[in-house]
Amino acid sequence: MKIKEVTIGADPELFIINEKTKKVVSSIGIIPGVKGDAWKSDDMPEGFGIEVDNILGEFNIPPCKTREEFVNNIEYMKNYIDRFVKEYNPELGIQCVASREVDDDQLQSDEAKLFGCSPDYNAYTMKQNKAPNGESTNLRSAGFHIHVGYRNKNIDTSVLLVRYLDAFVGLPSVIEDPDTKRRSLYGKAGAFRLTPYGVEYRSLSSAAMKDKESLKRVWDRVQDAIDAFNWGKIIPLSNDVLDAINNSNKVLAQELLNKFYKKYSQQLCVESLEL
User: pLDDT tens digits, the chain, 275 residues: what are they?
Assistant: First the structure.
C-alpha cells in the first residue's frame, strides 16, 4: 500500500528559561492550557494552541500540506510563546533544546513529577515503552513529535513508516543534535503513537526546530521517508538503526548515512563532529 494525500503536523515542546540566569523556569502557572486541552487565544488561527506538559510549554499546529506552511506555523507559535512569557516576565524566553537539568525548586508540584500521561510504543517490538520516573531525576526533555496523516491509514503501514522515519529523519538527528541525555527518558528509535489520522513519530527532540533551516530539513526528510516507503527502497538493518539512535552513536549513524543516503551525508556538517 502506498501512502497518499499526506499532511504533516507537529506538537513540539520547549523550555521556558530565564534569559539572564539561563536557568529553566517551570511553565506551570505561566502558560495556560493543560495536556489534552490546549488554550487558544481569540487572535490565534484555527488549529493552533498552547498547553503545559510536565514543566515544559507545548504547542499545536494544524496539519500542513507544504513545507512553507509547516515552517511558518511552527515559527509563528515559537514567537507567540516567546512574546507570551515575556508579558508575564520580561526576563523569560524560550529554548529549543533536547534536555536540561532543572533546579529542585521548579519541580515541587505533582505535575512536574508526572511523566508519560499517554504511553508510546516501539515500532520494532510493538511493545509499550516504559515511562520514566519523574520523581527520580531532575532531567527534563523536550520532544518534537511529527504527525503524519494519510488516506486509508492502517496499523501495518504506520508502523513500517516509523522505521523509515528512523532511517531518514532519526539518523541525521543523531549527528545534528549534540544532546546525549534525552533518550534516557524519551525519544528512542521507533517511538510512536497511532492516531485517528495516521501516526505520531516521537524520536526527534526540540532541537529540530532551533531555526528555519532545521525545520526545512525535517520536512524534506519526512517526505523522503514517505517516498522511499512508497518505492520499497532498502533501509539499514534494524539493529544498526537502534544502536545509532538509542546510543547517540554518531560514528555508526554517519556510516549508515554514507552507505545508504549520500544525499544526507553531504548535507551534514560531519567535519565538525567530535568523533
Answer: 899 999 999 999 999 999 999 999 999 999 998 888 999 999 999 999 999 999 999 999 999 999 999 999 999 999 999 999 999 999 999 999 999 999 999 999 999 998 866 899 999 999 999 988 888 999 999 999 999 999 999 999 999 999 999 999 999 999 999 999 999 999 999 999 999 999 999 999 999 999 999 999 999 999 999 999 999 999 999 999 999 999 999 999 999 999 988 776 656 644 333 32
Distance CA 202, CA 182 (A): 12
SS3 content of the chain, % helix, strand, coil (to 5): 40, 20, 40
Fold of 7-101+120-128+136-268: Creatine Kinase; Chain A, domain 2 (3.30.590)
CA distances from 250 to 81, 188, 190, 257 (A): 33, 15, 18, 10
The domain segmentation of the chain, as residue ranges, is 7-101+120-128+136-268
Q: Structure pTM?
A: 0.93
